[in-house]
């Protein structure tokens, strides 16, 4: 575990503030962004349909011909309205799945979807960024939480360190991870089957929640998992 001791840590030696700070993504910004993207996509749909019809080898010409048979401006206004509606639904889903972090002197609370996770200061050894995820580590090396985070990272780092929490510039245990392949030796009983199921779930467009649940099952076996592209890496929590 020497690598864990040598990772640079970002600490603030100054006095901590007594006031809790809450960081959350702006629901209005998320909604406006999604609606704008939907509107642009909808407005471009008639153009793409006409382009499709101009290609002799293109598939789905039937739906494209049906779409372009509508007169203008009804066609563009209609596809734009559909795009706005789709963007609105996407925005509502994105707001529901956005992470908020409440940082106090005694606790850190992560709120996402319809639930919250609260961790006492003594339960946390460090927090760090892994790609687009915020990770909370316990003193044992166990991952307490790993959540997708759209918050400004510098602001989050500053807020945590101002309240006296340790921010690691990278995973302190990164060097201990090994790439998983089916039948990898050294895993606890049952872990290989869970990793197989999780690999399959990650390939499924609707498998994100199942992959998340399987990560939790692996943590109960003392196995921490991290993803890189389509690959899974694992390490054992010692002690």
Short description:
This protein is an alpha+beta fold and 239 residues long.
What does this protein look like?
The chain has helices spanning 2-6, 27-53, 61-68, 74-96, 153-162, 191-203, 208-220, and strands spanning 9-10, 21-24, 100-103, 107-112, 115-120, 126-130, 133-137, 143-148, 167-168, 178-179, 223-228, 231-236. The longest helix has 27 residues, at 27-53. It is built from seven helices and twelve strands. It has three domains: 2-25 and 99-168, PH-domain like (Roll), CATH 2.30.29; 27-96, no CATH class; 177-236, no CATH class.
Query: Helical amount among residues, as a percent range?
Result: 40-55%
Radius of gyration from the CA trace?
A: 23 Å
Q: How many domains make up the coordinates?
A: 3
Q: What is the CATH architecture assignment of the largest domain?
A: Roll
Write down the overall geometry. Answer: flat
Annotated CATH topology of the largest domain = PH-domain like
Structural class call reads: alpha+beta
Strand/helix succession: HEEHHHEEEEEEHEEHHEE
By DSSP (H or I, 4+ residues per run), the number of helices equals 7
Largest sheet entry: 5 strands, mixed
**pLDDT < 50 runs, ≥5 residues:** 1-5, 11-17
Provide the spatial order of strands within the biggest beta sheet.
1-9-6-7-8
Distance between the termini: 12 Å
Q: Which percent band covers the strand fraction?
A: 15-25%
CATH class (first level) name of the largest domain: Mainly Beta
Number of strands: 12
Overall pLDDT level: 87
């Amino acid at each position: 575990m020497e690598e864990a001791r040598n990772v640079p840590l970002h600490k603030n030696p100054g006095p901590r503030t007594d006031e809790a700070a809450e960081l959350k993504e702006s629901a209005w910004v998320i909604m406006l962004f999604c609606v704008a993207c939907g509107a642009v996509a909808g407005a471009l749909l008639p153009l793409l349909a006409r382009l499709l019809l101009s290609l002799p080898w293109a598939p789905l010409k039937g739906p494209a011909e049906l779409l372009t048979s509508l007169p203008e401006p009804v066609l563009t206004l209609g596809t734009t309205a559909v795009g706005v509606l789709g963007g609105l639904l996407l925005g509502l889903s994105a707001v529901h799945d956005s992470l908020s972090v409440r940082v106090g002197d005694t606790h850190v609370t992560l709120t996402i979807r319809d639930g919250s996770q609260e961790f006492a200061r003594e339960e946390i050894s460090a927090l760090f960024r892994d790609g687009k995820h915020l990770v909370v580590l316990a003193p044992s090396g166990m991952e307490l939480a790993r959540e997708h985070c759209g918050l400004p990272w510098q602001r989050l780092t500053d807020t945590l360190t101002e309240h006296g929490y340790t921010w690691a510039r990278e995973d302190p245990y990164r060097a201990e991870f090994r790439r998983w392949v089916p039948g990898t030796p050294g895993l606890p009983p049952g872990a290989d089957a869970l990793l197989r199921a999780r690999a399959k779930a990650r390939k499924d467009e609707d498998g994100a929640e199942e992959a998340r649940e399987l990560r939790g099952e692996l943590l109960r076996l003392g196995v921490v998992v991290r993803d890189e592209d389509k690959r899974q890496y694992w390490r054992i929590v010692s002690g």
